[in-house]
Amino acid sequence: ESAERTPVTISWNATIDPPTIADQDFCFGAMIRDIGVPEYMDIVWYSSATGPELLSPETLLRTGAYYAAGKTTGCESTVRTPVQITIESAEAPDAIPNQAFCGTGILADIAVSGYGVVWYETENSSIILPLDTELENGKTYYAAQGNGNCEAARTAVTVTLSPIPANATPQDLI
Asked: What is the model's pTM?
């Protein structure tokens, strides 16, 4: 036994309650880090209620259950909260990729099939074009349709405008 004594401080951490997290819907491409969680608590994610597989924040979400444990001061909740994730999806609209018009036309004239189709000027634009937008010869327009808040890949349609011959009659244009 030594003559000097070393003081030791022991900290006792109370048990941590599991987090309360609502089930959530996402579009394809969402990751674990996108799941909405309470701001007051750090969360770690697992692939099962009891298994050891810790998930990275960059894990791509799929439809199914993910399990959240609260974490604070080096301690983790012993109970994991199941959170049901649903990945919504939508398909690109169908359209003939090259469409020709006589004279002029507007976006609404382009033949496309789909639900709630919207048009964009570029493949990555976020600005929806009005359906009465005048078509431009040789220009490509991009159609998309959505399912809930998710939008599918865009379908490209290139427009060709043929001039109306000067001596054309209304019967020639039919």
From this structure: 0.58
